[in-house]
Predict the 3D structure of the following.
Amino acid sequence: MSRSTVADVVVDGLKRAGTPRLFGVAGLDAKLPLLEAARAGELPLTLASGETAACIMAAVTGDLVEAPGAVVVGSGRGVTAAIAGVAQARVDRAPMIVLTDDHPAVFAASKASLRVQRESAAHWIAHATRLAATEPRGPVHLEVPDEIARQSALPLATSCRPDRLPPPDPGALDAAARRLASASRPLLIAGLHCRSTGVPQWLRALVEALPAPVLVTRRAKGALPDPHPLVLGVLGNETVDERLLKRADLVVGLGLDALEPVPAPWWSTVPVLALGPPQALGDRIPAVEVVGEVAVVLEELAPRLHDRQRADWDIAELDRLKRELSAGPAGDDQALARRGIVRIAREATAAGTIAAVDAGPHMIDVAVGWHAVAPREFLVTHGLATAGFALPAAIAAHLVHPDRRVVCFTGVAELTAAAPELETATRLGAPIVLVVFGATASDSTAVTRLAERFRTTSFAADSEARFAQALGRALSGAGPSLISSTTGAR
């Protein structure tokens, strides 16, 4: 029987926590004990071109599989470059383990910074993975010094999964049922916790039983299929939001998170009933709150609503509001053109296709135009500081779902920030289609030059017809491809 090392125990703990692969950066010493242990333990290793991107890939992986992603970060400049990726994971509530061989203070952005001890290595990796996956989820830094990583250690079958939340309080459930029973026009907002396993079917049952309209935050897209007639779209259209709030007599926040951008009027115009994990709302104070796992709360709430009268929303008016939201801002040719491009991309791709989106002027247009039919088909970040999220996110999505197409929507500046990861996508043979929105012909030229630099196929489109042709060619090719779209440019 071979001797187990601390590094072996750490890798084993990651696997038992559900971590599907380990990320690192090209150029890492191949003899690092953690990398050697990953190869020996058959934990796949993927190397990105930069530390920020490696952290984003690990965080998105963790978010997609609902288990900690993992990344090995080298010392020196690598640690500094990883800061943005760690902060991104914290803001996005993504479970992630950041492994280093020293203890840099820069990882103060993580939920905790821990150090593995030889005598208790199994305990520390279990503690780290449980903490990363416990609400609010986020990155945990684990220091594994090389001299300790190579020492022998005793593997233990310690639980690496977080404990389930306690059941919701029956009194709070009764109060929530009374609020819903007395409401004539409840209005629902679904947040990121509605993506968790088991929630979508209960969410759909509640929406249809009331029946009541629902708006989703950007990260909750797909918790209820966008084409559903009661899904009005993404929260944030001020005109539609105001008209809905004027008619609603109760706002029901389902699985919202404190970091999701919910406008203040939603918390002050009418009473709020909140259902979701503990401390998820931050300093927001609802009239009634039921704390617990969203699926369990909805399951326990259902029988209490059995005799409730149906809501009296005007379904025809809701349909008009949904079409108004989808139509886009009148007079903004660029926004309307972007939405047209997104709709073409959505119609040309199969159900289950994943969209990854960068922050920028195009983000809301993509959020409105891209119809998601299941959770985690729309990858977007809460954070606006880290440019170049979408391409690393798309690569992570391809690795988790190699049988599904991924479309990446970005801008010229965001693509430039993440450009080295084009080499990663090409090396992996990831069939990602990057749609790059630009405003001028020079933007298209910049995209073409980037593609040439990284030997990536590229196309240019200045109309919807040409975009559709380019998209068809991109979807039929192997490996990544870029489409520079200046449709609607003035």
